[in-house]
Amino acid sequence: MIPAAFDYVRPDSVAQAVSALAGAGEDAKVLGGGQSLIPVLRLRLAYPSTLIDVGRLAELRGVHDDGDAIVIGAMTTHHEVMHDALVGEHAPLIAQATETVADPQVRHRGTFGGALAHADPAGDLGAVALALDCEFVATGPSGERRIAAADFFLDYLTTALAPDELLTAVRVPKLGPGWLSHYEKFNRVAQAWSIVAVAALVHRENGSITQARIGLTNMGSTPLRAVAVEHALAGADASGEAVGAAAEHAAEGTAAPSDLSGKSDYREHLARVLTKRAVLAAAGS
Amino acid sequence: MTRINVNVDGISYTDEVEPRTLLVHYLREQLGKIGTVVGCDTSNCGACTVALDGQSVKSCTLLAVQADGGDITTVEGLAAEDGTLHPVQQAFHDHHALQCGFCTPGMMMAVRDLLQDNPDPSEAEIREGIEGNLCRCTGYQNIVRAVQAAAANLSSTGGQS
């Protein structure tokens, strides 16, 4: 299908983009790589009046070191993120999850920030950003502000970004020594969305887990943290038995959807199984 | 209408397009490049894959205006000017890596990209490299064989894909 007609604006800078966004009214949409938005337009699930294309703004692209964090420009493509040395060193969980996003063609065009701002709970990066306690950098007419990952995802496809704000970067705190990670994704066929996936970060010392942070993909209308599992894992042995017992809490506080890929009780089962697998894989046990 | 400049298979074009025009429709309907096909129209099947600035993309999931200033290679630009097939095309022919042929243009463009990134892929890497392209006929066996043959040919000739 062909999208409904819209006006197309391609600003040359973030400042121009922000002012275009402020002037374009509430029916404007920001276009990054377009790998989520264009399918939505093509199916006519959305009718934006204006598309503001920030996909080629060089200032939104690339990863840099900022001391205690690495900063990923919102328009850095998935392909670039996967192959970035700073991401590989400080946030291998992001690289591992990004490799599972869609397929090579989509990863060439789709962007890190675009996927997060789209906020599809079945998308892989939200749970990872939550587990990593990332900060989202939003730029609007009155300047820049930072939004904690825990406050960013409000509802299905809905974020804390104001209509006149642009997601410009994501700050990923560097983890200290001892932190290990794993992304465990379950889907039916290659390139499909996660039916459920689990992002696990664990801090391991002398055979036990001192701290854990668990993000869940597609277990509610937003990505979620499995808080009860995190509490149960704090101080637990990194053994199959102890991790399995902690993972039994994985579906607590979730509101998993029921759809063609599975009913909610099946997703709850998956969350428990995948959490155990993810934590054990991360902890190397 | 928005003006775009693109280079497609070695020829420069300047055209006026509606911003909502998908790249695949621009290629097929405005330039007559019908070697690039529309399969699923839902970003799944990869039949419409072309290279934009050297990287494989799904041309049904790109607006023509996003390709402004870009260098595009379609399946029609793969063979040499004298008609010599590209090593990937030759390998698909030699190993009969198709039945109905509808996925073939996009499949070959995805394979070309895969071999640029990874000149000596394992079988698993080949299967992952073409995960964005669906073939409903072959079961992929001959496609994988063709990719292995193309990789061997390209590395033995030092060929540039």
Tell me what you see in this structure.
The complex is a heterodimer of chains A (285) and B (161). With 285 residues, chain A is an alpha+beta fold. Chain A folds into three domains: 7-53, Uridine Diphospho-n-acetylenolpyruvylglucosamine Reductase, domain 2, CATH 3.30.43.10; 62-173, 2-Layer Sandwich (Uridine Diphospho-n-acetylenolpyruvylglucosamine Reductase, domain 3); 181-283, CO dehydrogenase flavoprotein, C-terminal domain (Enolase-like, domain 1, 2-Layer Sandwich). Chain A is built from twelve helices and 14 strands. Chain A has helices spanning 14-23, 37-42, 78-82, 85-90, 92-99, 104-109, 112-118, 125-131, 149-152, 227-233, 240-247, 264-283, and strands at 7-9, 28-31, 50-53, 63-65, 69-73, 135-140, 143-148, 153-155, 158-159, 166-173, 179-186, 196-205, 208-217, 224-225. A five-stranded antiparallel beta sheet of chain A has the order 4-5-10-6-7. Chain A has a four-stranded antiparallel beta sheet with strand order 11-12-13-14. The longest helix of chain A is centred in the last third of the chain and has 20 residues, at 264-283. By secondary structure, chain B is α+β, with helices and mostly antiparallel strands. Chain B has two domains: 2-77, Ubiquitin-like (UB roll); 87-156, [2Fe-2S]-binding domain (DNA polymerase, domain 1), CATH 1.10.150.120. Chain B has five helices and five strands. Chain B has a five-stranded mixed beta sheet, covered by helices on one side. In chain B, β1 (2-8) and β2 (11-17) form a beta hairpin. The longest helix of chain B has 17 residues, at 141-157. The termini of chain B are far apart. The mean pLDDT of chain B is 96. The A-B interface holds A 1-8, 10, 31, 34-35, 38-39, 41-43, 51, 53, 55, 79, 102-106, 108-109, 190-191 and B 2, 18-22, 25, 41-44, 46, 49, 52, 55-58, 60-63, 65-66, 110, 113-114, 127-129, 131-133.
